[in-house]
Amino acid sequence: MIRYNIFLMLLFFLIAQPAVKSEEAQKKPPAGFKRVQPNQQQIDDNSRIKFARNLMREKNFDGAAALLETIYEKQPDNNSVIYLLRSCYNQLGYYTKTEMMTRSMVEAHPERYVNHQFLAEALARQNKTDEALQSYQRAVGKVIREDSTQYLNIVRSMSSHGFESEAINLIKEIRTQKNDPKVLSLEAGKISEATRDYKTATLEFFSALDDTSRGGVEAEGRLLNLLSNEEAASDVEQELLAQSGNSPRSKVARLLSVHYLKNGQPEKSYQFARLQDSLDGKNGQAILYHIRSCSERKLYQDVVNAYEKSPPVYANEPMYFEALRIYAKALVQLGRFRDAIVVYDSVVAKFPRKQDRSEACYKIGRIYLDNLMDYESARKIFDSVIAYHTSGSGYPKSLISLPHCYLRQGDLDKALSKFDRLSGLRFNQDALEEIQYYRGMIFFYNKNYDSSKTVFNRMLVDFPKGFYLNDALQLIMLMNEGAEAPMFLYDYSRALLYEERRMPDSAKVFLDNIVEKENPLLADISLYKLCLMSLESFDSTSALGYIEIMSDQYPDSYYFPFGLKVKAEIFLENPETWEKGKEIYRHLLESYPDYPFISDVRKRLRELEIDTRTG
């Protein structure tokens, strides 16, 4: 046994020995190479530079400059140190020191254009104008092989240090030298814009539109901004119109189309969208963009006008179905429900894609459900989609819409049964949340408050950021508070059921009954609900009246800030009460920072402030 153990030890030693040698061999440098140990001084200087950067981030430029000066004495050619130290001096206003350092750089490397440029900047900051211009001239003379990037850096430096006219003259010289009238067009446009020479700026930006890099995109954006500038708009529009005459350009046509739509001239906008489309080969994208933009601005009649004027050639283009859907939506918004159904019917009959037919058929069902309130026809259409159009988004949407038909008809048991069946199917999170929310609502309508609270509480766990979260929370609070006044809770549940069934007059009867009894537990939310119902029937006067009652009787109600938000939105619809609406928004931000709508209020107020500044 002992001999066996010794044998194993020897065997292990023999196997392990080459591995040890191999490991030692790996540590040795390859033949012909010599391992160089890092320079400790270099490591220390790099650490100091890193520390100086941190000091600069903390705005401690004095400390950073003192540290960098010690390194600069030892490494006068270290570019990192030079740029950092120069930045510190400029931040501190030590322009004399900057000048001395840059003169040393010029003496050491007179062939570098950037050294002369930095010296010119240091001189310009000290108002040594003539010397600065001479240094800029020397910088231009040092540009290597007419490098456009180097010229650009010098031009930007000149324009940012008060030599705008000299920078423009330099650009003209470079263009003559290169025999290219479009060189540095974007930069020339920026300088002209800064000096409020908007006509020249427009022409320069126009020349830069052909740039296929980011410069062309920036030029387009700057032209759009100029068109939005009240002072510049007239000159810019005039120049662009002139450019769209004899030899029109697609980008100019798009700019003018966007401009006219923003300024409330959709007919002119459409004309330039047509021009852009013809220049782009009549692919229909410009028309689609115009129609989509009108729809986003709720200019539904202009959507209809633009679509109906579009030539039939677009019927075979990929954009056609999207444009058609936007057109049908606009018809619905204008109350032309039967016309919209005809449009969708044409898709069902003619379009080859199953997904398009499924979506169109579903849309017809929604028109019958939401607009015509023909629930029996809506149910038949949704059943048809479920049976025959299983491809595309129309299928799952029809599955979820079908129970709503029974709910609108007042058949709560059938609706609940349909929603229960859907609970076991696979849907996305939004659809699953909607299914559970309406299950909870049906329990609420049936006065089964315990089951309703169970469903809503489960929703808070399963969908913590869901669309129906606030509604579920409010109803849980309502049921807990309403337990002390069951008759009023009963009336409120009936009111919500009638509202769901699109019977606002019946809902109002029950809500008025709660308000007249002045029960503080439910009167406040009933007033808020009456306010919302008034808005849906376009009666803003009554809505404001309900908010005033809340202000007088229930100023501490949880729902009063919601009412104030509605009041602000009503005021913002009228230019004469715009400032009042903004003032209410500011009050909401200051007094109710934890309310669920506060992020929307902050965003909207920021947009309003920007609109005010830009005119």
What is the arithmetic mean of pLDDT? 85
- In DSSP terms (H or I, runs of 4 or more residues), the helix count works out at 33
Q: Give the low-confidence spans.
A: 1-38
Number of E strands: 0
Approximate strand percentage: under 5%
Radius of gyration: 36 Å
How would a crystallographer describe the biggest sheet? none
Termini separation comes to 99 Å
Structural class: mainly alpha
Task: Describe the overall structure.
With 615 residues, the chain is an all-alpha fold. The longest helix has 26 residues, at 2-27. The relative contact order is 0.02. The protein has helices spanning 2-27, 40-57, 61-74, 79-92, 95-108, 113-125, 129-141, 148-160, 164-178, 185-194, 198-208, 214-228, 233-243, 250-262, 266-279, 285-296, 300-309, 320-333, 337-350, 354-371, 375-388, 394-409, 412-423, 429-445, 449-462, 469-482, 486-500, 504-517, 523-536, 540-553, 560-571, 578-591, 598-614.
Topology:
Blueprint: H1 2-27, H2 40-57, H3 61-74, H4 79-92, H5 95-108, H6 113-125, H7 129-141, H8 148-160, H9 164-178, H10 185-194, H11 198-208, H12 214-228, H13 233-243, H14 250-262, H15 266-279, H16 285-296, H17 300-309, H18 320-333, H19 337-350, H20 354-371, H21 375-388, H22 394-409, H23 412-423, H24 429-445, H25 449-462, H26 469-482, H27 486-500, H28 504-517, H29 523-536, H30 540-553, H31 560-571, H32 578-591, H33 598-614
